[in-house]
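Person: Please comment on this record:
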Amino acid sequence: MVPYMKSVGEECGIKFSYGGHVGNTFDSHRLIWKAREDGGSDLQDKMVESLFKAYFEDEKSLGEDQVLKECCEEVFGNTSTIMEDSSIGNEEVMQEMEYFRNKYHVRGVPFFVVDGKYELSGAQPSEAFLEIFEQLK
């Protein structure tokens, strides 16, 4: 799977490097939530891209506060109060996790829900998404 992901990533300009330590990613989910709260889907996408680059390309741990602060700086322009107050977004992220766990029986990531009714679990080839998008036309 890793060689396949690297080749697909290169086609999209992503240089996957799987040397990073995973760690606890709960705070990264809080940052994604905060970005959506502050700036909608556009800012949320920027945060996800920053986090993914840190982990998948730069081999940084999303469990380290310094890495998350760097992502905040890049996306929000500052380290954001969410990194100073660990209670911000906790309840909301826990509710989202519970919702997806119960509704879709999510047990791991990646997990994709398209249009609220099509589910894809695990890494999927682009054709799997294209089939769903065709059905949505």
User: Anything to note?
Assistant: Helices lie at 2-11, 26-57, 65-76, 80-84, 90-104, 126-136. Residues 26-57 form the longest helix (32 residues). The chain has a mean pLDDT of 91. The longest strand covers residues 111-114.
